[in-house]
């Protein structure tokens, strides 16, 4: 029961509830604490008198408009309820937001004894026009003439507090010991008295009339006291009447006097006992559900505590594994270091060997050269010409030969003193810096790629429906799916749907276009892989009707939005409900009514075309307007190509839009009317018509191209529509 203690404490004083009252917001507060936090409008004005004065915004209005000021400790005192007990404010102290705080008339006892002392005296009357702010939900409540007595007492909460305090009290004492009560050993259920053993033998002997009394252990006797018959409650408005009925609309117990007074006469009322049992049953059902949640929470806490132990064990194991892996890397690096040092040693020895050999060879040659030079100098010193000439040729040859031996390259070192070895440690250092942990187990937590259900995927006109499912053996939880489509031109994919459904219809695609689609699943771990890519082809020919949403208000539609007329003598524009950006499209309009020789206009338009002028008057429309004798082409109020031949009742006007050539042409009664009307057309266009009340036409869409016309070549893949 220790967890319940916070439910039994007042949010203002922090102690157990004492005479708790129920606020309209269903929160509870001590009666004395409610008195402490009352606020009143300035000058004791009522809301009615403040508004009747007509002097702008009153303090009370300010209080109502800015109730947030009640929540500030600096202006209204709210939030410092404890201060009302230890250091009450000055009576009627006015705060900056225009409210007055009424402290308690009599300082309450210390918090530790607040609920142990008897309640003495009567609380002073509550000032008029007082307001109370709930300390939990901050809802402002205006008191009526009854003041705090208008709030019902929470007797159930008060009883729970009493039982809780009794259960927390010391061991039960004998009620008949005179000086120092001894611990009770039994309780008599009939006498309702706790006895120690000496007092039981003296005052409650097991003979005579008392022999039939039932003696129970003290703990059981305490429980029997708790289950004593409930008190009969009286009405707060009619203190002499017992509460016997329950008003369903007001959700409060009422007495018969309340019903006779008329306040609840039109409300639905039921017997108090029946509603008591009904609400007890509802509370029990709610508690069962909450109990299941609490059980799940306890199991979850056990799981978390086990996770703490597992985390500690896994942490030690993982640290040891990490140290072992790093030691293995260091050992591998040391082995490689030894190998590289061995190569350096060999290179060092090779260089020394080559240089020493060159030194030895050069020393021998230099000694031979020096000997030859000394010998030749001695020969030159001789004065015997004939003897000199006998050996001079041979000596000259020897000198030249020796000189040639010291030719180019013989005095160049065969080996450089530098070591032409540079350790390429850059990639290894970069790898060490990039050394990091990889998610070894997380990959399996990502959802698997969905499977497209080909039998349910289809296209209709310019809409595509896709359906998918999870792989049958997949056990990974999925939070949702992401559907992607390209732009119909082989461009980049874009998200068109994110949600939990496994079927989606995408509208507004281009006609005669090829779209690629794919889907992937996601959960809290991340996004899974894409499904296979599905290629879909939208319809080449479009079926459409007139669009009632974007039409001018004077337009009148009928025949499932296929027949149109107007109730104005001025021209009004209406467009089709489907736009075109590629392909070849042909539609016709039959003239159902044609009076007084008007000149309706037929053609195409952008989505933002003007609706209250003739089609073609602005730069957003390309049209042909025609009367009973001739026709003209018009764009941006420019009239061109006057052509003989008009319309009458029963005539047919055809419109052919070819995006492969970028042209627009018109027909009257299956014959082309004039030359090609417009060319170099690119972008999104909607079928359009302008007419007045003298004309009525019916639309026929999705028609084949006339036989006399040969469409241009299909657009190349990847071209822009």
From TrEMBL:
List, alphabetically, the PROSITE patterns matched.
B302_SPRY (PS50188), COS (PS51262), FN3 (PS50853), ZF_BBOX (PS50119), ZF_RING_1 (PS00518)
GO terms (molecular function) for this protein are:
zinc ion binding
Per the database record, which ranges form the B30.2/SPRY domain? Answer: 523-708
All copies of domain COS, residue ranges: 380-438
Is Secreted one of the keywords? no
Q: Which UniProt keywords apply?
A: Coiled coil, Cytoplasm, Cytoskeleton, Metal-binding, Repeat, Ubl conjugation pathway, Zinc, Zinc-finger
> Residues in domain Fibronectin type-III?
446-541
Compartments reported by the entry:
Cytoplasm, Cytoskeleton
Protein name as catalogued: Tripartite motif containing 9
């Amino acid at each position: 029961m220790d967890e319940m203690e916070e439910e039994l404490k007042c949010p203002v004083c922090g102690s157990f509830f004492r005479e708790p009252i129920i606020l309209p917001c269903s929160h509870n507060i001590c009666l004395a604490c409610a008195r402490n936090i009352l606020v009143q409008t300035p000058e004791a004005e009522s809301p009615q008198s403040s508004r009747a004065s007509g002097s702008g915004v009153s303090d009370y209005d300010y209080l109502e408009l800015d109730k947030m000021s009640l929540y500030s400790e600096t202006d209204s005192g709210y939030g410092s309820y404890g201060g009302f007990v230890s250091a009450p404010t000055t009576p009627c102290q006015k705060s900056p937001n225009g409210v007055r705080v009424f402290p308690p008339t009599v300082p309450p006892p210390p918090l530790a004894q607040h609920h142990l002392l008897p309640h003495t005296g009567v609380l002073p009357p509550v000032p008029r026009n007082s307001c109370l702010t709930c300390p939990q939900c901050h809802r402002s409540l205006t008191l009526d003439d009854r003041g705090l007595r208008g709030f019902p007492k929470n007797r159930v909460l008060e009883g729970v507090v009493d039982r809780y305090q009794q259960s927390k009290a010391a061991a039960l004492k004998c009620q008949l010991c005179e000086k120092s009560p001894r611990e009770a050993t039994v309780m008599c259920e009939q006498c309702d008295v706790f006895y120690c053993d000496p007092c039981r033998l003296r005052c409650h002997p097991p003979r005579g009339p008392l022999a039939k009394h039932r003696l129970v252990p003290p703990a059981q006797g305490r429980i029997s006291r708790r289950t004593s018959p409930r008190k009969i409650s009286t009405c707060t408005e009619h203190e002499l009447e017992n509460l016997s009925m329950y008003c369903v609309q007001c959700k409060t117990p009422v007495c018969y006097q309340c019903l006779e007074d008329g306040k609840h006469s039109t409300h639905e009322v039921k017997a108090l006992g029946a509603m008591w049992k009904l609400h007890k049953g509802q509370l029990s059902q709610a508690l069962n559900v909450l109990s299941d949640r609490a059980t799940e929470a306890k199991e979850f806490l056990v799981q978390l505590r086990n996770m703490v132990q597992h985390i500690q064990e896994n942490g030690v194991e993982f640290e040891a594994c990490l140290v072992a892996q790093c030691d293995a890397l260091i050992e591998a690096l040391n082995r490689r270091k030894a190998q590289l040092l061995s190569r350096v040693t060999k290179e060092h020895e090779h260089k020394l060997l080559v240089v020493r050999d060159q030194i030895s060879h050069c020393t021998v040659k230099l000694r031979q050269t020096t000997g030859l030079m000394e010998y030749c100098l001695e020969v030159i010193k001789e004065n015997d010409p004939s003897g000199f000439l006998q050996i001079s040729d041979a000596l000259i040859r020897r000198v030249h030969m020796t000189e040639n031996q010291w030719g180019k390259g013989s005095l160049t070192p065969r080996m450089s003193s530098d070591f032409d070895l540079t350790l390429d440690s850059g990639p290894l250092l970069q790898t060490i810096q990039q050394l990091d942990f990889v998610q070894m187990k997380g990959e399996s937590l990502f959802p698997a790629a969905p499977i497209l259900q080909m039998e349910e995927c289809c296209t209709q006109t310019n809409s595509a429906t896709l359906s998918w499912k999870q792989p049958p053996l997949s056990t990974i939880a999925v939070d949702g799916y992401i559907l992607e489509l390209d732009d119909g031109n082989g461009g980049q994919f874009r998200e068109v749907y994110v949600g939990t459904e496994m079927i989606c219809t995408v509208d507004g695609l281009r006609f005669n276009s090829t779209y690629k689609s794919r889907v992937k699943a996601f959960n809290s771990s991340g996004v899974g892989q894409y499904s296979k890519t599905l290629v879909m082809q939208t319809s080449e020919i479009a079926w459409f009707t007139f669009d009632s949403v974007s039409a001018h208000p004077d337009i009148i539609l009928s025949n499932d939005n296929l027949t149109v007329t107007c109730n104005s003598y001025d021209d009004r524009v209406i467009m089709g409900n489907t736009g075109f950006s590629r392909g070849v499209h042909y539609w016709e309009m039959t003239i159902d009514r044609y009076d007084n020789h008007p000149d309706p206009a037929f053609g195409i338009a952008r989505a933002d075309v003007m609706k209250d002028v003739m089609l073609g008057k602005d730069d957003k429309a390309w049209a042909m307007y025609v009367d009973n004798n001739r026709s003209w082409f018009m764009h941006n109020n420019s009239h061109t190509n006057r052509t003989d031949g008009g319309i009458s009742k029963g005539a047919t006007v055809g419109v052919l839009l070819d995006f492969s050539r970028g042209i627009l042409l018109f027909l009257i009664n299956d014959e082309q009317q004039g030359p090609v009307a417009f060319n170099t057309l690119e972008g999104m266009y909607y079928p359009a018509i302008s007419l007045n009340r003298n004309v009525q036409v019916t639309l026929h869409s999705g028609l084949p191209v006339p036989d006399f016309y040969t469409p241009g070549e299909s657009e190349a893949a990847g071209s822009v529509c």
